[in-house]
Amino acid sequence: MGFQFPGQIIIILLICVILLIVIVKNIKIVPQAHSYVIERLGAYYASWDTGLHLKIPFIDRIAKKVSLKEQVVDFPPQPVITRDNVTMQIDTVVYFEITDPKLYTYGVENPLAAIENLTATTLRNIIGDLELDSTLTSRDTINDKIRIILDEATDAWGIKVIRVELKNILPPREIQDAMEKQMKAERERRARILDAEGEKRSQILVAEGMKESAILKADAVREQKIREASGEAEAILTVQRANADAIKMLNESCPSDQVIAIRSLEAFVKAADGKATKLIIPSDLQNMAGYVSALKTVWDKDKTEEA
User: How far is 81 from 27, CA to CA, in rounded Å?
Assistant: First the structure.
C-alpha cells in the first residue's frame, strides 16, 4: 500500500496555496506616470503613486487607473456662426494632463465628453463675436481665449489644459471661391505694381544716363574753350612781350641805329599782324606804324643822298 497524506494536511496545503494566490493577486505595482485611485469599502481611500503597493482583499479595490501623461484629443468639426452670419466648420485639438486623480475620478462622469462640449460652446461664443476675416487671421487669439476658459473650468475636474489649437477652419464653398478670386486679383494687382515700378526705374536710369552724358559733353566743351582761350592768351602774351622788347630796343637805340630800329619795328608789326590788335590799343599801333613809316622815309632819303 502506498503512503497517503492525511486529509487535514491536504486541506492546509490548499488553504496555503489559495492564500498565496490571493496575496500575489493583491500586490500591485503602479508604473511610471500613472496613479491608481483606491476605494475601501466603497469610499475613496488613497491615490497610489509609482511603486509597490498591497491591496487588502475584498475590502480595497482599484476604482480607476489614471495616466498622468500629457494627452491629446482631436475633436470633430463643430459648426459655428460668425458675427457676419457665415457658417463655418472648425475642429479643435486640446492638449491636457491630469493633475489630481481623485478629482478626475469623482469630479465629472465623462471628462472627455465634458471637455468636448465645453470646447464647442466656448468656440461658438468666441467666434460669434468675430467677423469672417478676423476669424481667419486671429487663430492665436482664439486659441488663447479657449485655453484660458477651459483651464479655469477643468480645475474642478483635476485637469490642466496646456494648449488648444484650431486645426481646420472650413468656410462654405462659395466663400472659399470668393476668397480665391480675391487673392487672384490681389496677386495681379501686385504684379502690375511691380511692372510699373520696374518701368519707372528703367526710365529713371535712362534719364540719369542722358543727364550724365550731357554733363560730360558740357564739361568737354568747356574744357576745350578753356584750352583755346589759354592758347590764345599765351599767344597774346608772346606778342605783348615782343612789343615790349621792340619798344625797349627803340628807346635804347641811338640816331645812328636807325636801321636797327626800323628792322625791329618791321619785325614787330609782322609778328603782331592779326593777333595783337585784340589787346593793343589801335591808336598805339597806328602811331607805331606811322613812326616806322617816318623812319623808313628818313632812311631812304639818307640812302639817296649817299648815292
Answer: 54
Nearest to 165 by CA among 117, 114, 88, 94: 94
Residues of the chain with pLDDT under 50: 1-3, 254-257, 274-286
DSSP 183-214: HHHHHHHHHHHHHHHHHHHHHHHHHHHHHHHH
Instruction: From 94, 107, 26, 25, select the one nearest 66 (Cα to Cα).
Output: 107
Domain coordinates in residue numbering, the chain: 7-66, 71-171, 235-306
**How much is the pLDDT for 220?**
83
Contact predicate 279/233, CB 8 Å:
no
Compute the distance between CA of residue 165 and CA of residue 171 in angstroms, rounded to an integer.
Answer: 17
Residue 116 phi/psi, 5-degree rounding, is -65, -45
Rounded Cα–Cα distance for residues 273 and 294 (Å): 19
Handedness of CA 148, 150, 156, 161 (dihedral sign): negative
**What is the architecture of the domain spanning 71-171?**
2-Layer Sandwich (3.30)
User: In whole angstroms, what is the distance from residue 118 CA to residue 125 CA?
Assistant: 11
- The C-alpha atoms of residue 274 and residue 14 are separated, in whole angstroms, by 153
Task: Give CA–CA dist 15/9, Å, rounded.
Answer: 10
DSSP string, 242-288: HHHHHHHHHHH--GGGHHHHHHHHHHHHHHHTTTGGGTS-HHHHHHH
Alpha helices in 26-100 (DSSP H): none
Q: Among candidates 112, 146, 114, 113, which has minimal Cα distance to 127?
A: 146
Confidence at residue 283, expressed as pLDDT on a 0 to 100 scale: 43
Dihedral angle sign, alpha carbons of residues 46, 65, 40, 100: positive
Specify the amino acid at residue 271: A
Q: Say what the pLDDT of residue 242 is.
A: 64
41: left (phi over 0), alpha (psi -120 to 50) or beta: left
